[in-house]
Structures are given as structure tokens and as C-alpha cells.
Amino acid sequence: MSLSKLKPAKGSIKDSKRIGRGNASGQGRTAGKGHKGYQSRSGTKNRFHFEGGQTPLMRRLPKRGFSNYGFRKVVQIVNLDRISKLGIDIINPEILVKNDVIKFDNIPVKILGNGNIDKPIEVTAHMFSKSAIEKLEKSGGKAIFQ
């Protein structure tokens, strides 16, 4: 066996439909688009929510519940155990991004107190939990608000 003799499995590749190539092809004349109407014209899009003029499902269903999607606060969370594994004395969002702890340095970072810290670390972030501040100060480090 060699790479030059590889072929796809039998029956896995089919010829494409040759649309609009005469009536004998089975896809001639209207080219599989039916007669008249929105979908038969050029430039149509399959709008996934459109139901042919019928009131769409999302308008038929009642509104219910609450969503804070429009004004939610997006925060990236980092635990102390993750910070202590880095082995760096001064931590800020840019360093966390560089070490793949968080993805973005323009979204606020909150430090949570899960895990233990044994050496003094100076952490700069937008938010801290109470337990994170206590543990940082107990180890001789600092929690600096950005």
C-alpha cells in the first residue's frame, strides 16, 4: 500500500447534480425550484425562523421568566491554587493571559479563594473575594485592585 494508490471507499463519492442542463437530466426547466414564489427567485435565503407567513414559533409562545442577558456582568474567574502553581511573585491580568490562565486581558478578572498560598504574591485584579484577600495577606502578599 502506498499513498499514491489510496482511493475513497466505494460508493462514498457521488456525482454532483447538474442543475439546469435540460429536461432530460431531471433538473431542467425550473431547475428543481418549483413554480413561482419566493424560493424560485434568485437571491433567496433560507431564513431559519421563517414559517411561510405563519406566525413564527417564537411569537406564538408566551414570554416567561427573566433573562439578564442584556446587562449581565462578564467576569473571568481565577482561583488562588492556579496562581500559586505559576510560581511568579507579581501577578496581573497580562501575565495571566500570557500563561493561558485566562483568555482576555480586557475582560475583568476576579480572584477567588479556592486553594492555598504558601509564599507572598502581589496580585493585581479587578475584584477579589473576601477569602482570597485573607489568604493573600496571611501569606504576606497583597491584593491590589485595578
Q: Which structural class best describes the helix and strand composition?
A: alpha/beta
User: What is the succession of H and E elements?
Assistant: HEHEHEEEHE
Shape: elongated
Mean pLDDT: 92
Helix percentage range: 10-25%
Q: Find the count of extended strands (DSSP E, 2+ residues).
A: 6
How do the strands of the widest beta sheet line up side by side? Answer: 1-3-5
State the major sheet: 3 strands, parallel
- Our measurement of the CA-to-CA distance between the termini, rounded to an integer number of angstroms, reads 62 Å
Stretches with pLDDT under 50, minimum 5 residues: none
- In what range is the share of β-strand residues? 5-15%
Q: How many individual helices?
A: 4
- CA gyration radius, whole angstroms: 30 Å
List the topology elements.
Blueprint: H1 57-60, E1 76-79, H2 80-86, E2 90-91, H3 93-98, E3 109-112, E4 122-125, E5 127-128, H4 130-138, E6 142-145
Parallel strand pairs: 1-3, 2-4, 3-5, 4-6
What would you say this structure looks like, in words?
The protein has 146 residues and is α/β, with parallel strands linked by helices. 18% of the residues lie in helices and 14% in strands. The protein contains 4 helices and 6 strands, in the order H-E-H-E-H-E-E-E-H-E. The chain has helices at residues 57-60, 80-86, 93-98, 130-138, and strands at residues 76-79, 90-91, 109-112, 122-125, 127-128, 142-145. The strands form 2 sheets. The protein has a 3-stranded parallel beta sheet. It has a 3-stranded parallel beta sheet with strand order 2-4-6.
